Amino acid sequence: MSVPIAGHTSLTSGVSSALGGTCQAGGSAVTAKLPNSFAAQDGVYIGMTITITAGACSGQSRVIDAYTGATRLAHVSAAFTGGAPGPDATSVFTLNPGVISPTVKSWATLPMAANYWGIPGHGLAQPN
Predict the structure, then answer these.
(1) Which of 55, 118, 123, 124 could covalently link to 91 via disulfide, CB atoms 3.0 to 4.6 Å apart?
(2) Per-residue pLDDT at 12
(3) How many domains does the chain have?
(4) Is residue 88 domain-resident?
(5) What is the predicted pLDDT for the residue at 84?
(6) DSSP result, 86-98
(7) Is the Cα dihedral 34, 20, 64, 109 positive or negative?
(8) Which pLDDT band, with edges at 50, 70 and 90, does 97 fall under?
(9) Among 82, 114, 110, 98, CA closest to 16
């Protein structure tokens, strides 16, 4: 299976299921509050696509352009519509691979980072 990624040829087989969960309350039209189990490091999910699969804002996908680890807020490139104020505690989501943020410097800082090995220019070294 090949999954197109902007600026890259493809992300090929070997990718396991996307990250996902249920948003927490506290999002807005331009943010989704991810579960506390997600990374506490700023910038980790930049470039990934969040897709709301159920609940408020269902059926919408947005690219994450900023991520604040302390609050688990993922800021998106365009406002969510049809849900007030945006994704909430009813919103089930998946995060799908995109361009890995240059702020990620090691495999230990990104959950499931091994899934993204092989993306040209990702900045992560292959684990030893």
Answers:
(1) 55
(2) 34
(3) 1
(4) yes
(5) 72
(6) SS-TT-EEEEE--
(7) positive
(8) confident
(9) 114
Domain with 22 in it: what CATH number?
2.40.10
Q: What average pLDDT score do residues 5-23 get?
A: 53
Assigned domain for 121 exists: no
Q: Of 13, 40, 16, 35, whose CA–CA distance to 24 is shortest?
A: 35
- Average pLDDT over every residue of 74-92: 90
37 contacts 24 by C-beta, under 8 angstroms: no
pLDDT at 18: 63
Q: What is the pLDDT of residue 39?
A: 93
DSSP H or E segment with residue 6 = none
Sign of the CA dihedral running 120, 63, 22, 104: positive
Task: Say if strands 92-96 and 3-5 run parallel, antiparallel, or are unpaired.
Answer: unpaired
- Angle subtended at Cα 17 by Cα 13 and Cα 18, rounded to the nearest 5 degrees: 110
Number of neighbouring beta carbons within 10 Å of residue 41 = 18
CA 40 to chain centre: 13
128 domain-assigned: no
Residue range 3-14: mean pLDDT, rounded? 37
| Domain contains 126 | no
